[in-house]
Design goal:
Elements lengths: L2 H5 L7 H15 L3 E7 L2 E8 L3 E6 L6 H4 L4 H5 L2 E6 L8 E2 L7 H14 L5 E6 L1 H12 L4 E7 L8 H10 L6 H5 L4 H11 L8 H12 L3 H13 L4 H4 L6 E6 L7 H10 L3 E6 L6 H4 L1 H12 L1 H14 L1
Parallel strand pairs: 3-4, 3-6, 6-7, 7-8, 8-9
Antiparallel strand pairs: 1-2, 2-4, 2-5
Helix pairs in contact: 5-6, 15-16
Length: about 325
């Protein structure tokens, strides 16, 4: 059989494929290995690496864990046993048809994953939609969650003035689904330019690939998930039940979940502290990775940070 015939039907790797190969290689080099947890909700894919207290990283509504935490993988694995799952309907996880993808359903799946891994207690960090799931995990099983880090986190019921800010930032969108599932390349470009303070340059042909491979993947299901999430939004009184020590970290210029959400969360939570990233929008872990990693590590593992500083002083 000729090479031409053998290659027929094979898809040529795109820029996204090549980038993912490189990012996967970096995770592997930092000690991460991939695995699956077979749960009633489906097959949950996750990467795990590092040593220390378990730390679960929950990504948001765009990409899966691979891209979301690429700037944290190395730094956090130096202090923690990091577990970075792909939520159902994202990345390489495969959901059962009965799994509705709502924040509470996702939270139950994450708790089952921890139980299956034999982890009795873990820190949980979530960004945006992942932050919603992180708080739902803590509400559902308070003993399983040690400390919480909520980064530009969804979950709190908006006020009318919050909705006005979001509408002004995304005037083309009639619903939240229209914002986070852009209909075309122009809207995706506008979305990225709005949620980042300094949006990375991405060629239009790559944006098209990102739309088709990520934002439009399971698009109808994801619209249903957004509707369910809006039905499950919490009031401040619900957060008052969380006794966990919590770090609320926010981008000062977040247009999707404005800083007023952070202030209300800190006011509602019994034991919370607030940190603002002054040069970030909705994704501070991508815009200010070094500051983000230092903040998270200092909050979750202060002893490990002190030991590392002592080692550096001895070397000096």
């Amino acid at each position: 059989m000729s090479a031409t015939k053998r290659s027929r039907g094979k898809k040529t790797p795109g820029v996204l494929d090549v980038n993912r190969l490189l990012v996967r290689a970096r995770y592997y080099r930092h000690g991460y290995r991939s695995a699956r947890a077979n749960l009633p909700e489906g097959s949950l894919f996750y990467r795990r690496g590092g040593e220390g207290h378990p730390l679960v990283l929950l990504h948001g509504f765009g990409f899966g864990a691979l891209e979301c935490w690429q700037n944290q993988a190395r730094a956090l694995a130096q202090c923690f046993d990091v577990i970075a799952p792909d939520l159902f309907y994202f990345g390489d996880s495969v959901a059962d048809r009965t799994h509705d993808g709502s924040p509470r359903a996702q939270a139950r799946a994450m708790l089952r994953m921890l139980e299956q891994l034999g982890i009795e207690r873990a820190h949980v960090l979530g960004i945006s939609y992942g932050g919603f799931i992180a708080s739902e995990m803590a509400m559902a099983d308070p003993e399983r969650v040690a400390r919480l880090v909520l980064v530009d986190a969804a979950g709190l019921e908006p006020r009318a003035e919050d909705e006005d800010i979001v509408r002004a930032a995304f005037p083309w969108a009639e619903t939240l689904a229209d914002v986070v599932i852009p209909p075309d390349v122009d809207r995706l470009q506008q979305f990225l330019g709005t949620v980042f303070v300094r949006a990375p340059f991405i060629p239009r042909f790559v944006l098209k690939e990102i739309l088709e491979r990520e934002f439009w993947r399971h698009s109808e299901k994801r619209r249903e998930m957004i509707a369910l999430a809006e039905q499950q939004l919490r009031r401040p009184a619900d957060y008052a039940r969380l006794a966990h020590k919590t770090l609320v970290a926010w981008g000062r210029h977040d247009p999707l979940l404005p800083p007023s959400f952070a202030e209300r969360l800190v006011a509602a939570l019994p034991d919370a502290e607030l940190a603002m990233f002054e040069r970030s929008g909705h994704v501070p872990m991508l815009e200010e990775p070094h500051a983000f990693n230092t903040l998270v590590t200092t909050f979750l593992a202060p002893r490990a940070v002190r030991r590392a500083r002592r080692r550096l002083l001895r070397r000096g």
